Amino acid sequence: MDATTVIGAVLRAANDNTVAHPYGDGLLVDLPLTYGDGDGVRVLVEPMGSGFRVSDRATAATLLAMAGVNLFAGRAAEAFAEITRGAGLNGVNAVPGELATFGTADDLGRLILAVAQASLRADQLRWLAPRQAGMRFVDRVADRVTVWAGRTRHLQRDAPIPLGSGRTRSVTVRVTNDGKAAYVQALSLRDPDQAAEHCYHVFGLSTIAKERRIAALAGSKRDWPAAIVTELQTVSDVEFFDDPLSLERQLDKVVPPPQPALRA
Question: Which of 16, 63, 140, 159 is most buried as measured by Cβ atoms within 10 A of its Cβ?
C-alpha cells in the first residue's frame, strides 16, 4: 500500500457519496459527512457574478437553535464568529447564523469543503446549550423559525390568520416573502388533546390553502396518538420538532428563498 492508493480510495469514496440536486439557480450538494444528530451535511452552491457563493443555509445555526444555543450573545456567539474567521469565510450576503463564502470556479471545491467543515465545527457548540426547563414550546418554535428566516423573509409572531367568516385568529408565527406566506402553529405536549383541537379548529376554518398551514408538534411522531396526527393532516402539513430540519424544509417549499437577491 502506498500514498497514491490511499488517496485514490478516499477520492473514490467521496465521489461515490457526493450527490448534487438542482435548487433554484444553483445546486444543493450532499456530502459524505454528518452532523452530531446523524443528519447529512448539505451546502448550497449558487452562481454569483463572476464566481460562486457557497453556504450551509444556516443549517448548523438551526440545529443549535433547536438545542437552545443562543448564537447572538455570550460564549456561543463568540465561538461561532471564531469558527467563521478560522475557516476563512468572507460571509458574502450571509444572513445571521449562515456560514457562507464567495470565490471563483477554480476555488469551488475548497470553498465547499471550508463551509462544510465550518458547519460541522459550529454544530459542536450544542454542548453550550443551557437548561431549558422554563422555555415555552411556542418560544422554541418561534426562535427556530427566526433563525431559518434570517433577514430575507419577514416574520411575525402571534400573527392573524383569516377565517371564512371574515374574522381572524392568531397563530404562533407567520413567515412571508414575495407574496407567499406560511402559517405555523406550535403544539406542545403539555395538553396534546387541547392543543390539537385548537389547531384543528383554527386551521379548519381558515381560508389559507392547506399546504401553507403548518402544525409544528413538540417531540417526535411516537409522542403523539396516531389519531391526532391523522386529524391534523386533514387541515395542515404536520412536522415534528425533534425531526432535524423537517420544519425548515417545509417552510422552504412554501416560502422559497429570494433568488434574485443572490445575483450580482
Answer: 63
Q: Which domains does the chain have, with CATH numbers?
A: 3-129 (no CATH), 137-254 (3.40.1350.10)
Q: Determine the Cα–Cα distance for residues 264 and 260; give it in Å rounded to an integer.
A: 9
Coil vs helix vs strand at 234: coil
255 CB contacts (<8 Å, ≥6 apart)? Answer: 153, 175, 176, 177, 180, 181, 182
Predicted TM-score (pTM) of the model is 0.59
pLDDT tens digit sequence for 118-161: 999 998 887 777 655 457 889 889 988 888 887 778 999 999 99
Query: Residue 254 has which C-alpha cell?
Result: 412554501
Sorted by sequence, the CB contacts under 8 Å of residue 87 that are 6+ apart come out as: 99, 101, 114, 115, 117, 118, 121
